[in-house]
Amino acid sequence: MFLLAAGLSIIFGLMNVLNLAHGSFYMVGAYIAYSVVVATNSFWLALVVAPLLLAVIGAALELVFFRRVYGRGHLAQVLLTFGFTLVFVDLIRSQFGPTTRSIPPPSGLEGAVQVLGATFSAYSLFVLAVATVVGALLLVGWRSLRVGAVLRAGVEDKEMAGLLGINLPRVFTLTFAFGAGLAGLAGVIAAPEFAIYPGMDANVLILALVVVVLGGLGSIEGALLGAALVGLGYVIGTSLFPQFAIGLIFALMAAVLVVRPSGLLGRRM
Amino acid sequence: MADEIQRYLDRRLVENLDRREFLQIGLTVAGAAAFVACGGSTSSGPSGPTGPEFKLGVVLPYSGVYAELGNSITNGMRMYFDSVGNQAGNRKITMITADEQVQLADAVAATKKVVEQDGVDMVAGYVSSPNAAGNRNYLDGQKIPTLVANAGVNSLSRAAKSPFIYRTSFSNWQPAHPVGTYVAEKLGKKRIQLVYAKYGAGLESVASFKETFTAAGGTIVGPDVATPFPNNGDQTPFVQAIQIDKIDGIYSFMSGTDAVTFLKKAYELGTLTRLALVSGAGFFVEQDVLAAITDAAPAGAITGLHWALTLPNKENQDFISKYSKKFSGRQADVFAVQGFDTARVIVDALNAVKGNTDNKDAFMKAIAGVSFKSPRGDFKFDANTNNVVQTIYIRKTVKDPKLGWTNQVIDQYPGVADPGK
């Protein structure tokens, strides 16, 4: 969840592009994982291949299509990227059919684990660990590496960053590729945990958007916090009153937006 | 400037007129040609049907979560129609498909499209219960002969029954009912917790199980585990709400993606293997689910359904092998069987009335009178409920050396009919 939201947040925040196709990247990532696992029986290979492929796809789409709509406002972007969600879901359906598929967790992570008296599935803990590691790396990179500084500069003030000699178009392409790669990674990670089917993109996209809005646009910390809140809210919500879980999340979002219109850790607009 | 505009408009008008005239002429010519062609072909073909075309509106989901079901039902129908040369009662049968999608509004639009634009003689389809129930009044009011090919909502056999709507699939009550008796009496398991997706079908299924189960001395151990439908989130809290230490087992109604994610999570947590019994309506472990989860399947699960891949009768074995041959290796499923039987009902009824569907009462009577040996066993309609009367098979989930994970028939309850109230 966090992985997905982080990618979305970076793209949205930095480039000011509302990318609805982000959920599709996630779905494609999951299907790549499925194909790789079926072909080679190696989940770990999928974990490497899918994000890379997605990054390439993301970069290609950015270069050919999205680049053209930056100046045209959010409506054009929404139309274009929404169009891509339809294209992706139909491509997936024509390739794999509408059947629900799934892959087993990698060997070694199949069973259950007792932690403090409660039972967790080993794979869930693995997901948690990956999210934590990636989250930490992102935070470090964002705060202290040169790339992070360049990105932050881009988020803060595009023109100034451009004046300082940063090649913004290239940064944009790379950022987009990176965001898409993160979504692909999220897809692979989610594949053994959830079911793989055409339509999984839409379900997760809405939640990711909530996470981003809740946490604040263009802020990694915000995405982290937002993901934690939405995740907790959803789980607590489903166990207390299952029929209202989604409602609870949106109520939470509404409440936050009333108090802090730019999200919890967002920039002041 | 104004003149220029005026001239431009005039020219447009003339052009348009020309085009309209041209179209008119073109259409007349084309129409005449088509008329001649049609007349020629029907009179010269000695073996083809000579009656008017019989148009069947097929309203099934070809997109959205139920697309797979829609495709299977359509395949089943096509297979039967092809086997009789796409004709019955001296009429050529043409299927006109329309996408039911997921939401009622779309299903209503699809129904109206085939009825009002295509002028179909009959409608068949409906996968989702709200969509079947939501189109009921329209179809009833328009007196369109209709066969429901999947949607299980009980009310269509009860309060919302219509003389124009028959059901070839099942009512939600049916597959669950014998399971309650079987679990309590034959298996002697008396303490069961209910686990279900909380929506119409889930609620009706567990209510039906509860009826026979408690009547046979069983106790439902609360609280029920009711998951949201569909559940796109984590299934862990629901799996962990199963009170392993207090119960003999569970009865479950879930299908498709929900069943896949739930069973996988239960497998990882090792929950179901610690229960003496996993039971449910057959959809919980039907072939689509088993194919997705493979070795996470709950071995030994006892479920009730009106069909099983492993049914040994000749009709079924024939059906399975021909289906797989016709649709490039696709495995037959329960939905394909429903489509196959739906088409058979239409063909038999058309033959019975010799293709005359103008007298709708007579045509509906012919439908009601259809009975045959289906891949699922004996098939006939119940005059009380307009619902199919059929055998419910008690099946056990096993790993077959040839078929992989599947369900083996271990017992059967013949002639299960919805009570109609």
Molecular structure report:
The complex is a heterodimer of chains A (269) and B (421). Chain A is mostly helical and 269 residues long. Chain A contains eleven helices and two strands. In chain A, helix 1 packs across helix 10, helix 2 packs parallel to helix 4 and helix 2 packs across helix 9. By secondary structure, chain B is α/β, with parallel strands linked by helices. Chain B is 44% helix and 21% strand. Chain B is built from twelve helices and 16 strands. In chain B, strands 7, 8, 9, 10, 11, 12, 13, 14, 15 and 16 form a ten-stranded mixed sheet that branches. A six-stranded mixed sheet of chain B has the order 2-3-1-4-5-6, with helices on both faces. In chain B, helix 6 links the parallel strand 7 and strand 8. Chain B is globular. Classes of the chains: A mainly alpha (269), B alpha/beta (421). The interface between A and B is large, with 35 and 36 residues.
State Rg of chain A: 18 Å
Task: Note the quaternary state here.
Answer: heterodimer
User: Whole-number average pLDDT of chain A?
Assistant: 80
Low-confidence stretches of chain B: 8-23, 25-46
Query: What does the average pLDDT of chain B come to?
Result: 88
Largest sheet of chain B: 10 strands, mixed
Total helical segments of chain B: 12
Share of residues in helices of chain A: over 70%
Number of helices of chain A: 11
